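B., you asked whether I could sanity-check this one before it goes into the benchmark set. Here's the sequence:
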Amino acid sequence: MALPDHRQGDHRLSYRPTTDVGYLSSRSARREEGSLAPKATSAHRDLAPGSRPLKLVKLRLSLALLAMAVLPLAIAAPLAYTVLDGQQYAERLRAERDSTALASTVGTRLHRAQERVARTAASPLIVGFLAVPQKTASATARAALLALGSSDDDGIGDVLVADLDGNVRVMIHDGKVASGRPKLPADDDVLAATLALDGSDAYASGVHPDTSGNPSITVAAPVLAPDGSTASGIVRVEVSLSAMLASGTAGLAGGNQLAQLLNQSGAVLAQARDPDAGPGDGTAATARVPGFPDWRIQVTTRHQPPQMPMGLLGGLAVVVLALGVLILWMARQVIRPAEELEASRRRLRDMYEGARLDALHDALTGLGNHRAFQEEFDRQLDAAKRYSTPLALVLIDLDDFKTVNDTSGHAAGDDLLAEMGRLASVNLRTADRAFRVGGDEFAVLMPHTDAEAGRVVARRLLAAALETRPGSDVPTSFSFSVGISAFPAMAVDRRQLSAQADSALYWAKAHGRTMVQIFDPARHRNLAVDQSDGDLSSSVADIAARRALRAVYQPIVELRSGRVIGYEGLVRPTPDSHFANAGELFAAAEASGRQTELDQTCLEVVIAGAATLSPEAILSLNLSPRTLEAPEFSVVGLIRLLERFGIGPNRVILELTERETVDDIDRLRLNVAAARAAGLRIAADDVGAGNAGLRLLSQIQFDIVKIDLSLVQGGPQQETSLAVLSSLHDLAQRWGAWVIAEGVETPEQLGLIRNLGISAAQGYLLGRPGLALDIGSVAIDTLLVRDDWLNKLTRTHATLAVSASPGS
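And here's what the prediction gave me:
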């Protein structure tokens, strides 16, 4: 679609192109904070700090670093398990070795003790002693018994000789013959068990504590009668296991260590009723005592936690520390570019917001300008529809403003405009919003106000203008004319409100001026007002069917050489279309839902008119995203249309302007990709005009970025606009996109954008839209020289005026 050329001057509200820098009045913003702030759009969210792509980068990086941090643990866990398991295995081997050594030592000592007791019992001295009842043992017999009890290496302690009745005949205790002669207990089974043996064996009891609580074993051997047929008594000794292992161990395996294991470290000499039974709970190893099948040595666990080797722990610590340093370094290397990109996005956003606020502000009057009015109008009307509240639109036009400029000079005209801005700020209500929408035209939006209440406020403002103000820059009175319409009593949409107020204003100026008029359908006739939505739809359909449009082309100039490299195709309604300008036509098409149909017709008209275009020149076509995402739009159909008139796709640029909400962004991306694949280039139009283009810039890749005239015209006066211009140019260069500046109307603006490095531009200064397609070049240097000459001439006149003044 060829969109209306808003730089033509044939715009509703008598909008003058040189004042359309579009943005917000800071004074109005301070009066009601946030009331004129633009709604948050996806473009603002995309430019906001902490945006979703950077968050995803940080999240993924965090997950990757977490995985890397777990890696040392994954390596150390099996290694530690192996070390600890090795320690447990070594502990088991030690227990088995200790139990085997203990069993061998105990077995050897017990055998030795049994043999000595058996030899002593077979001694003739002992046999003869027991053969005679009540006989006292001879000195030699006592010496033999003392020698048996003094054998420390076998651990033999108390020694006694008892007869068949259990009477103790002699007893050796602590190396001395005891004086008393006790009788063996009646329940002592040692006597019976020993007497049941033949002369070659000895009896060994189970482990039991002695009188001191130490583990001991009773060993006994029968004493045979002199004839050797029967036993006459027994020789009985107590063998201390502790003493047996603690003495005479220098030549044995284990030595004192074995004694310590037996007495202090959980080793137990047990008599097993079941020789095949395994170790009990807590037993690390067990070994049978040689020669004693029903005895075994059990070594229990020490209950000490396994110890990690300090060398291994130190190595793991070094690995973890090195890996941590590596992770931090890698994280910094990954995050630094993301942070730099985020900082760049933040700076661009801040500069954009600053330029936006400045560009919404009319510096001369302190009010919002035309762009701010358009955005606030949409917001206020949406709120009025949502909450069913009234909204009044007041249009104001200064009377005889041209006469003031012609007779008193433009400085006086500027003072008059500034005074009107001051009166609006002082006399309007807090909720009202005033804007300068044209050269001498103003608009006021009054929420929660009907037409009659709007008339009262407008008359109060007119009365203030008609008063004299001795201390003001405009001490004399001045007047203006007013047209009013209101929602919902008189109009239901923005188009009707604007058309009705404009018609009432036009009637007031034509019938005497200095009056306030509320729209009256009987007196204030207007085609756009009178037509219903059905009539508008029929009118747009009729224009599309008859092609009641004419194509005009504005040159696009390469700034270094001045060569015209192509043209932007625009349309104008023909006089018989009943639409005053292209803006009114496209507003009607949008209101009636025939925008896509009108776009298709505009494409055909513009392409047909460009059939004679030079083969080297490019052709730029305006297209709404709403049309590009429509099901009936076809890239193949567009290519066929271009081929019919001999225009190659590689010479065509499609300009997308986000003037309405995009409903199906996925389909839009698909059609854009198809157009690019066919050879067409895609341009983002009106970038910097409020919110326009920012959402598309954040979601679609563009080959060309066209900077809106509001930034171009605001650049020479406002540093923020200049900063945004530079940032957009740098951003486009990063994308590999080509930059075209729109709306160049003064040599000063031309010099500015050329100094910034912008390669191409279009505007009234370089060429107005027309029918000609054969403009060869533009004398860029001549325009810039003319600007310098005008500046010098202006300074000379100012100097002469000062020197001629009475006070000089």
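One thing to flag: The mean pLDDT is 76. Otherwise nothing jumped out at me.
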